[in-house]
Write a structure and sequence with these properties.
The chain is built from seven helices and two strands, in the order αββαααααα. It is mainly alpha-helical. Helix 5 runs parallel beside helix 6. Keywords: Coiled coil, Membrane, Transmembrane, Transmembrane helix.
Length: 198
């Protein structure tokens, strides 16, 4: 298992390097820069994109009526999402300091940048902002929950979960009482490497 984990880690690093390379290629192809976290397209590229924008009225009248009816359900989730965002932010600021767990950087998860695309109309931009926020908050909360689980109960389940968080593979085997007690002695006394804390 350790050998497989190491191969998986190496493959993940190779995958991330390839993603970074492809992003750089796309930046050159679509001529944009990141300036202090803001996307800046060259003017001719913005003009080219604008040619593909669908007007708001046309967008609304050509869409499925059922899609419009479900919009309040989608946007109604903003309240629990904001509460989740606020709750996990406060939780980690207090509890992670007490536990000595590295805090999660929200900006690594909540990425909102699609509204810079000139080929989107105002409603499409709003939808993209909403999706970036919603999925980012859920990923942010998942990472905070994963680090919490790593601290309090790092035991694998008896059955396989569909998509466990990245910390799960470091967890102790289900049923290994001896390893769990040994882990408690070392981990809670701060004798665990820093990368296991993140």
């Amino acid at each position: 298992m350790d050998e497989l984990r190491e191969r998986l880690r190496a493959a993940q690093q190779e995958f991330e390097a390839e993603l970074d390379r492809r992003i750089e290629i796309q930046r050159e192809r679509f001529r944009y820069e990141l300036e202090r976290g803001k996307v800046r397209f060259e003017k001719d590229m913005r003009d080219w994109q604008a040619k593909y924008r669908t007007g708001l009225w046309r967008y609304l009248t050509r869409g499925h009526f059922a899609y419009l009816l479900t919009a309040p359900l989608i946007y109604g989730l903003i309240v629990p999402l904001v509460l989740l965002d606020l709750s996990v932010a406060i939780y980690q600021q207090i509890c992670f300091r007490v536990y000595g767990i590295d805090r999660v950087k929200r900006g690594d998860y909540v990425v909102i940048d699609r509204h810079h695309l000139a080929y989107l109309n105002g409603l499409e931009k709003l939808n993209c902002v909403y999706c970036g926020y919603a999925n980012g908050v859920i990923a942010y909360a998942r990472e905070i929950a994963g680090r919490t689980e790593r601290f309090w109960c790092p035991i694998k389940h008896a059955t396989r979960a569909a998509d466990p968080h990245p910390h799960f593979e470091k967890f102790l085997e289900y049923g290994d009482a001896e390893a769990y007690r040994a882990w408690l002695e070392s981990y809670r006394r701060g004798k665990v490497p820093k990368e296991d804390n993140a």
